[in-house]
């Protein structure tokens, strides 16, 4: 049986110079393709650097903030939050920065007696308002009843959320004394609100405690509210 004929291409033996020429052709082709990409890459890279918008410079604005009974003259950008103005500009670091998005309540301060998350409001918006931070809760060297109650009933553990809890508790007690109804008030037509645990828990629900000292916090608020009602 005769041998199977080999593929014609297998019998072709290219001279060494032909093989070298083909390798050279491939190399030159790859170089040409690569070179053709260089202008495109440069064209793509150039807009990337020039497309970055410059950081806008917002001129500072003169603002007067009334904090803890004293006026403070500030020159700050309009985008500065009240929390950053307190901590970074005035160095009133008792107000804590927690989540910085209004979810934990650690930055709670009082603005005209109402609870405000200072991370969610701009400092320039509070000009003319009466701002009270944790540094302004005490009566000089004497602790406020709510501060003494927090200590007596061990209403804090790590203490990080405590300034916000105390500020919120001050407004919480004032709301109940004023007869302001909440979501759990049994009869909103009544002009008085009972100082019950559910009422306190509902009103303090915007202040989170990672240590879980909620029972002691409620007890402290109950104790402080009894003193302030007397």
Features:
single chain, 230 residues, alpha+beta, five-stranded mixed beta sheet, globular, disordered N terminus
Q: How is this structure best described in words?
A:
This protein is 40% helix and 11% strand. The N terminus is likely disordered. The protein contains 6 helices and 5 strands; from the N terminus they run αββαβββαααα. The protein has a 5-stranded mixed beta sheet with strand order 2-1-5-3-4, sandwiched between helices. It is α+β, with helices and mostly antiparallel strands.
Question: TL;DR of this structure?
Answer:
This protein has 230 residues and is α+β, with helices and mostly antiparallel strands. 40% of the residues lie in helices and 11% in strands.
Uncertain segments are 1-12, 38-43
Structure summary, number of beta strands: 5
Report how far apart the termini are: 122 Å
**Helical element count?**
6
Present the secondary structure layout.
Elements: H1 16-51, E1 61-67, E2 70-76, H2 82-89, E3 108-111, E4 114-117, E5 130-132, H3 145-152, H4 162-177, H5 197-203, H6 214-229
Parallel strand pairs: 1-5
Antiparallel strand pairs: 1-2, 3-4, 3-5
């Amino acid at each position: 049986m005769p041998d199977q004929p080999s593929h014609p291409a297998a019998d072709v033996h290219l001279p060494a110079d032909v093989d070298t020429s083909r390798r050279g052709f491939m190399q030159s082709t790859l170089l040409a393709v690569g070179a053709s990409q260089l202008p495109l890459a440069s064209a793509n890279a150039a807009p990337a650097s020039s497309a970055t918008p410059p950081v806008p410079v917002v001129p500072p604005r003169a603002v007067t903030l009334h904090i803890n009974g004293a006026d403070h003259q500030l020159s700050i950008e309009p985008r500065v939050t009240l929390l950053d103005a307190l901590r970074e500009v005035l160095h009133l670091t008792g107000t804590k920065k927690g989540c910085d998005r209004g979810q934990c309540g650690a930055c709670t301060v009082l603005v005209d007696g109402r609870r405000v998350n200072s991370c969610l409001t701009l400092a320039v918006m509070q000009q003319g308002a009466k701002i009270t931070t944790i540094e302004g809760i005490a009566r000089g060297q004497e602790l406020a009843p709510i501060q003494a109650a927090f200590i007596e009933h061990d209403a804090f553990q790590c203490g990080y959320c405590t300034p916000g809890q105390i500020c919120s508790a001050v407004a919480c007690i004032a709301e109940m004394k004023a007869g302001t109804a909440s979501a759990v008030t049994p009869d909103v037509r009544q002009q008085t609100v009972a100082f019950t645990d559910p009422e306190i828990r509902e009103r303090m629900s915007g202040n989170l405690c990672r240590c879980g000292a909620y029972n002691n916090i409620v007890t402290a608020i109950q104790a402080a509210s009894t003193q302030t009602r007397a």
